[in-house]
Amino acid sequence: MRRTALLASAALLTALVPLATAQAAPASDDPAPVPVDRFEGEVPFAGQPAEGIFTWGGDSDDPPALQLTARSDAPEGEKVLTGTYDISGYGGFTHDYAAGLPAHDWSAHKGIRLWWEGQNDGKKIPFEIKDGGANGEASELWTTSFTDDFTGWKQIELPFADFTYRTDYQPVGGIDHVLGLTQMWGYSLTLPTGVKGRFAIDDVELYGKADQSLRASVTTDAPVYAVTEGGTAKVRITVATTGAAPLTEPVTVAYRTAGGTADAGKDYTPVSGTLTFPAGTASGASRTVEVRTLKDRAAESAETIPLALTVTGAKAPAQQPQVVVDAHGLPYLDTRLPVKKRVADLVSRLSLAEKAGQMTQAERGAMSNPGDIAGYALGSLLSGGGSTPTPNTAAAWAKMIDGYQLQTRATRFQIPLVYGVDAVHGHNNLAGATIMPHNIGLGASRDPRLAEQAGAVTAAEVRASGPQWDFAPCLCVTRDERWGRSYESFGEDPALVTSMETVIQGLQGRADGSDLDRDDKVLATAKHFVGDGGTVYGSSTTGTYTIDQGVTEVTRQQLEDIHLAPYQDAVDRGIGTVMPSYSSLDIAGDGEGPVKMHARGDMINGVLKDRMGFDGFVISDYNALDQLPGAYPAQVTASVNAGVDMMMVPYSYTKFTSTLIDEVKAGRISERRIDDAVSRILTEKFELGLFEHPYTDTRNASEIGSADHRAVARKAAAESQVLLKNNQNVLPLKKSQKVYVAGSNADDIGNQTGGWTITWQGSSGNIIKGTTILQGMRNAGGNVTYSKDASAPTSGYDVGVVVVGETPYAEGVGDVGNGHSMELSAADKAAVDKVCAAMKCAVLVVSGRPQLVGDRLGTIDALVASWLPGTEGDGVADVLYGKRAFTGKLPVTWPKSEAQLPINVGDASYDPQFPYGWGLTTLTRTPSGGTATLKALGIAATLAERAHAADAGRALVGQARLIVQQKAANSMSAAVAKPFADADHLLLTGKYGAAVERLTAAYRAA
């Protein structure tokens, strides 16, 4: 799923403010307009920290092209700013004031205005201003928009009162949520997507006189007041001012109960009146209005009683409050009934519009009007990567989600939301959460129990902060490590992926769903169904992606054996939801060609639901609907009829719901199909216990990031480390040794945690609480000197540790060929070369996929695949210093060159740098005896297999591995690699005797 755009910046007006004094004073008492941009060349094209205008975009082709153009029809001066654009993701331009200059005070003005040359294309143009903070890139973003529905030049006025706090992205997480206007840093303008266009803009200036409504506001303590029948709602009305100053003018609030679905006199006692807050009233003063409801003893759906507020002298509440009499006495509310009967009763009562709402999921960033939750009867919200509340704390998450949940109380049947997040390696959107190794590292651990523990920690931290639904685990079988999502996979072998699906029990609990209502469990999602890990390199048509979201070309048997295999196990484990893949599936011989998975009814309805017996619900991927062929109604019909039950339509929920209703009315989607989808969704909501407990149980919030949780992550980090080479037993290190540490990833928690950490793409630097590998080594008691670029003198050290690898990325942004490669950076190569030439050295590769190091392997004494170990660098240090043994095994084949890709266990031609399953062990004695011992181990392993003694069988194969790896450590060849990799696959499938046979073949070839 994609993250929304970053729009921010800072530094322009300073040189322009004196120009305001040169203008004639207006006839009224309005202050003179203050120029912001005249576009005559007074402001350069430049970015932070200098003052200037700069462009930005989601991909390299998204930023618009800008120039200053002399125009005879310029509204002001001689020149205007013109530009062209062709934006697929997001793009626009920003004017920032210089970070080294004071911020500007706009508080004396009514708003900001500009001249825009209309193209009459009907497109909405978002306009953003930057308030408070250190500079334009660390300010608070406030947004409004205008519509290009005219031709020629027009002056657009944007009153500050119309700007709203941007909820989908804040560069520093937000500051105080108050548009103060006294510390302003510039503006941004976002251009339309999906069309080629041009624009012209001129004369941006501040205008008008500010009124009190910009500085004073009236709020209520809640937008919805739900009471049981006969109860009294107490609506507290508060007046507040910017800076907490007393009111300079009186504020009046007229109120009256009117409209709604409740009947005055029968369901409630009507009220009306006026509240007055005189001039001089302190900010924060409040009054209370009471609304008394009446009992009539009949079973009923919920009834609404809007309380209309008319405010004079201040800004009115963003949402008018309403009192709601709770639904009561209806069968679906009876906890004594089976879930199936409760669902059937509720579905029978819903209108088509309410059913369509349940099938709709919106992004929280789209909720500029939270009343839409009730207005469209939305079934779900999500936080995409980086879509977080301010501040980004567990308490703020719970408050935010509970606020959204409160809105559902104003619907007829008060169906709660289910709130989803991508917690793919811990609760990775939440600052301070415990971040596990990515799945590729868990796959390296070969420890199903550890996977379950990691899932349990993730579930507990997610549920305690509000969300009840996790878009994890990814059950993709990665077949080409050029894929930017390969680290989301447990590995290249479907048997390995299946073995790690214990994570589902960690997330959800028991397979029958009976644990879902616990305060430490969440609804899990198997993704991406099916074949996302098998796309062909170069087949993607999404932007500049090279492989992600491309085409998976397989025979029917390959589909079954490789990509479908993990899903039956997930269904058997009770997985609650499944997410289809963005990719297309092209099955040889079926005559269909490539078909997007979101439209493959043969796979979703036919295989997943009918053959496998999946009884949860199918959730689409982020905006995946838009990738289907045809017009929007055809896209909706194709996907829903294919079996997608809930549509993730982050910012187009109104369009989706109306289209879905139209398609049902037209007969292109059956009501039976709608009822099936809604029944599946409601079943999970009932099992989650949301009808009885819709709000967050925060009692376990103190456990988020706790020592116990971090201990699990530390163990996972240790077990994920794969020792590929260890000449002369360089590892483990001794505390008595003087260790020289270098490399880009030794002391960077952002690089260490990778993508999907705090934001969608992740980022380098100190982005989350945790321990870097360097700090872990120091914590372990190591005698460590650190020089990131190895520029410090290298003499006098016993051993060097160079930590190199990748910087963060996610999804197709990280595809090889899309700005990424599998080569180490020049700086990392230089650090390796310098350190390894000066002393014995160990190289740790922190990455989401193998890195090509064959040209330097001869100079490296020890090589470790560290993957992306998460926040607990102490776990890496544990194996480096011998507190724990290295036990990790390669979850994917480590290639010699990119030309070998794709390369996987079982290939007919197989000659990698290191084979699948390879992983040297420390602190463990290797059995003696060679072939004779291997023969004895093979006999014992076969007997263990026949006796279904899995633990004994795995231990016997493990002994055989030690023998082979000891002999083959420095004599790898295709003849060794292929049977060795085969043996690891056989081990995972329980064929212990055959595994030892293949290991014996590898031993003989070494």
UniProtKB/TrEMBL annotation:
From which residue to which does the signal peptide run?
1-24
Task: Give the UniProt family note.
Answer: Belongs to the glycosyl hydrolase 3 family.
Recorded source organism is Streptomyces similanensis
Keywords, sorted A to Z: Calcium, Glycosidase, Hydrolase, Repeat, Signal
Q: What is its EC number?
A: 3.2.1.21
Q: Does the keyword Repeat apply?
A: yes
Which Gene3D superfamilies does UniProt cross-reference here? 2.60.40.2030, Galactose-binding lectin (2.60.120.430), Glycoside hydrolase family 3 C-terminal domain (3.40.50.1700), Glycoside hydrolase, family 3, N-terminal domain (3.20.20.300)
* Domain Calx-beta, first and last residues per copy: 205-310
Write down what this protein is called. beta-glucosidase
Q: Which domain of life is it from?
A: Bacteria
Taxonomy-wise, where does this protein's organism fall, top ranks first?
Bacteria, Bacillati, Actinomycetota, Actinomycetes, Kitasatosporales
Q: Does the keyword Repeat apply?
A: yes
**Pfam families per UniProt:** Calx-beta, CBM_11, Glyco_hydro_3, Glyco_hydro_3_C
InterPro entries of this UniProt entry?
CalX-like_sf (IPR038081), Calx_beta (IPR003644), CBM11 (IPR005087), Cellulose_Degrad_GH3 (IPR051915), Galactose-bd-like_sf (IPR008979), GH (IPR017853), Glyco_hydro_3_AS (IPR019800), Glyco_hydro_3_C (IPR002772)
Q: Known catalysed reaction(s)?
A: Hydrolysis of terminal, non-reducing beta-D-glucosyl residues with release of beta-D-glucose
